[in-house]
Design brief:
Alpha-Beta Plaits, 2 domains, 12 strands, four-stranded mixed β-sheet, 43% helix, CBS-domain, rod-shaped, alpha/beta, 12 helices, 369 residues, 18% strand
Length: 369
Amino acid sequence: MSASTVTRCRTVFPNPLPSALPSPVPTELGIDSTLQDLQLSDFQLDANCHAQQVTQAFEHNPLLPGVILTESGQFWGAISQRRFWERMSRPYSLALFQGRAIRFLYKLVQTELLCLSGTTSVIEAVQLSLQRSPELLYEPLVVQLGSQTYRLLDAHHLLVAQSKIHQMTLALLRQSSQQLEVANLDLQRLASLDALTKVANRRHFNEYLASVWQQAAQFQSSLSIILCDVDFFKRYNDTYGHLAGDDCLQQIAQQLCATVKHSTCLVARYGGEEFAVVLPQTDLSVARELAEAIRCQIAQLAIPHATSSLSERVTLSLGVATAVPTVHSRLEALVDAADRALYAAKSQGRNCVSIFEPVPTDLLMPEQG
C-alpha cells in the first residue's frame, strides 16, 4: 500500500493483531521518524459486537482515539471516540444502539479514512492529515504496520510528534550554526596566524595596520610601528640548522608578545627573520622605550649565537617610526619610515634601536601624478 494512499473505510484489510494498550509517547524523535515510532492504539472489536462494549471501553480509557472494526477477521472500518460520543449523545441514540451491533452505528458515522503505511514519515503524514477536510482534521489515522497488522494514530499525537521534531530540528540547527561559527572563527584565527611563530602573519599585519590607520586619522592620534630584524640570522641557520633557527624565531615571538602586553597592540611576523609591532595611540618616545625594552629582553633570552659578529647571544636591530595620519595620508609612508630606521640601526652596528623622527605630513600625502 502506498504511504500516501487515502482509502475509503469499506476497503478490506487483513486481520489485526490482538488488542493492546497505546504505547508510551516516544521521547526520542528525529527528522526521519516514521508513524511506527509513535503512540499507536490497538483497540479492536468485531463489527457484530454490541455498541455497549465500545461504550465501556471508551469510558474506561478516554485516551483511546477510536475502535478498529473487523468482520470475519478482516479490517472493516474504524470509528473515532469523538464521533462515537457525538452520535451516542443524541436523543434516543443510547437506547437505540446500545443493544445492537456496532455495525449499525458505523453506517451512520463512517467517514473517509486516511490509511498510511507505518513507514510513512511523520512530516509527510502531518501534511496529508492537514489536507483533509476540516471536519476530518481530528479523526485518527489508520496505520498499516504489516500485511495483517493495523493500528490507530490519534491526530493530536501526530501533531505533538511533529512539534517535537520541529523543536529538535531547530535545536540541531542552532547547534550546527554555533559549531559553524566557532569553526569559522577558528579558520579566521588560523588564517591570520603565522604557522611557525603563532603570532600574526603579514596579511593580518597589513589588515590591522590599515584599520588602526583609519582610526588614527579620524581621531588625529599617534600611530607607531617597530620593525625588528634578527641579527646575522643566516649565519645562525648555517651554524645550528634550520630546526634550531625555527626554535629561535619561536622564542623571539613569544618574548615579543610577553613584552608588548597592551591588547590593542599587534605583534606580527613581517617576513623571514623580521617581526613588526603595531602600536596604536603611541607617540615616538613611548615606542622608542618599548623597542629598547624588546631589545634587552631578547638579549636576556641568552640564545647562543657563536658566529655572530656582535655577541655570543642572539640580538635584534629595531627601527621605530611614528605618524599622526590624516584621511588623505598614505600608511605606506609610515612603514617605509620604519624600514629606513631599521636600515639605519643595521648601518650603526646592529643590536640597537634607531628612530625615524615623526613622519612629516608632506611625506604622508599621496604622490602627485
